[in-house]
Every structure is written in structure tokens, then in C-alpha cells.
């Protein structure tokens, strides 16, 4: 159980630490604060995973082998909230979003038909494309304002890390292939240290053990617009989690019915609510772990519960987080291209199952990607709008979500079939109008 549980942790670890790393830098945290942020995140990830996989009776938890982690869907919106309101504003919005999820879970699990594959595939693709600039910033060295940004050394290290990941992914098998990103980060860090040295001071100055505490960084601040923005994002997170639950249900031969989906969403909302109290972020099912269960055939939810216990233990030892913070930014950038790119690939894979013939699905995808990518490609395009509206418009994910849902409802509205006309005096004859 420990070995298989550790395998789940290794598969999701790189993705789990990416969100707190990015948000910590966005809100101006010091390295010490980011270390605590990552440790607390791992702790909450573990608690959320146990809640989802083991569950609490018949009330909360899908009781499927699902790992919970920070969702990339909320990355850009949280960055916008953090720039204006700080970590307190993010926490308040996450708390409200968690409550929103818990309240809406019974309703949302009945509205799956409003989120067909064309909507979800396009939104997930947009999420992956929207966060790729973060990896680009890491590749250049992390600080865009620095005169050394984009120097040859940074570019070469990012390329070397990416090459290591690709080689392992191509020639590795089983677990080695699944942890190619982690191995690439480790090898890239070692090679970078040979030429530039490695700063061990941060690691040595960090204590061996700590225990996460609520509101460690700031007291939650509640503002209307951030709360609405994060609640919109949670709609995407809920549908994303339901998709993972339905896929996992098929893998373990226990189809996820409405009751299972409701309990799973309650676990997702509860983890998000508690995460907000700890100044953390929204949590969702990690799709890469769904693929791992399918590949290995190890379908026990208690294995995933063990993975949750391992994550909790890792969250209690901040030196592990200190090692992550010390990883050179170009190395993280090379790995980030793969991590964030795979999010987009997940959406493209879903779009591959969509029928684009003789329907309006191509227009739904075109509108969603076209409008959703505007803030990413031209960040200044909404600079003159009021700040409250700008918080929505500067996030391509929220724009894309709204556009995808509305465009699908308008363009793919189900037309009621014409009723057949019955010829008087002929009970068996029917002629369509």
C-alpha cells in the first residue's frame, strides 16, 4: 500500500506544488512564506484525498480512488485577485467558493447535460493555454524586469530539463514514465548546480517539522467581485471533478451515479472551504492519477487513502518544500512547459471525441478559444474598463467559461422533432410533416 500510494504522490507532486509556487510569487511572498504555503498545501491535499477516497459514511466523498489537488483552473483568477486584494482576498473568495460548491452540489450533478464534451474540452484546453506564459516567465529566469531575463544560460537549462523529461518519457516505462517531470526537475537542478551552485542556506535554515495553522498568512477578506469570480471558476472545477469521477467509475467498474457525484462534489467543496481557512486554494480531482489507475490496474481506494496519508506527512516536513523553492526557475520552466501543456492536451483529447460534422460545435470552440485567449495574447486590451469588471475580463478562463456555456446553449439548442401527422381513417399509416 505504501509503494502504490507513493506512486500516486509522485505522479501528482509536480502539479500540486505548481499552484502555490505561482501564487506565492504573485502576492509577493518571501521564500520562507512560500515554503510554508507549499507545506500547508500538501497537508490539505492529503486531507482532501482521504475525504474523497475514503469518505465519511454516505454523506461526503465519492469513495472512488481519486486524488485531490490544487486545480489549475483557478490559477489566473487567483493571481488577479491576489494582485488587488492580497492573500486575504484570495482566502475569502476561496471560502465563499467552497460554500457555493457545497450548496450547489445537489443541483450541479443534475446539470451535466449543460456541459457536454465540446464545452469541457474547450475550457480545459483554454486553461492549459492560459497558464503557459507562467512557464515562459520561469524559462527566462523568473523576473521579467531583470536585464538578464532570457539569457542563454537560462534558455539552455530549460531546454536541457525539457530534453531529459522527453527522453525519460520516450524510453521509460511504467512508473518511470509517469514521474518523468520529477526526474527532469531533479536532474536539471543537479546540472544547474554544477555551473551556478545550489543555495542550501534556505534549506538549512528551515525547520524540520511544523504544523499548518489556520489563517497563518492573513485573515480572510470578503469582497463581492472576487467571491463571484471564484464561484464561477468553481463551476468549471465541479464539472472537471465530475468528469474524473465518471471516468474513474468506469475504470473500477462502479459507475458514478448522481449520489456518488453529489458526495464527490461535497468533498471537493469541503476541501476548498477548509483550504480557504488555511489561506489555501480550490481543490479538484487530479486527472493524471485517474490515468495511473487505468494503467496499473490497482483500483483500491484505500491505496489512494494511503497516498493522502503520505501527503499529510510530507506537509509536516517543510524542508521538502524548501528544496522545491530552491529549484532554479529555468529548470522549473522546462518542466512547466510539459506540466501546463499536458493540461491543454487533456482538453484536446476530450475535443477529439466531439462530433464536428454538420453541427455548430466548431463555432463554439472558435468563440471560446478566440475570446478566451484575448487577455493572454493582448493583456492591455481591457486596461480602460473599471477595475471590478477588469477582474473578470483579464481572466481568459472566466471569459471562456461564460462564452462556452452560452454559445453551446444558443448554437446547439436541441430542436424538438416534428410530430408525425396521422392520416384520418388510417390507424397504421403515418406521414411525417
From TrEMBL:
It is found in: Cell membrane. Keywords: Cell membrane, Membrane, Transmembrane, Transmembrane helix, Transport. The keyword Cell membrane applies. One of its GO terms (molecular function) is xanthine transmembrane transporter activity. The chain crosses the membrane at residues 6-23, 35-55, 85-109, 118-140, 152-172, 179-198, 218-239, 302-325, 331-351, 363-382, 388-411. It holds the Pfam family Xan_ur_permease. GO terms for cellular component: plasma membrane. The keyword Ribosomal protein does not apply. It is a multi-pass membrane protein. Belongs to the nucleobase:cation symporter-2 (NCS2) (TC 2.A.40) family. This is Purine permease.
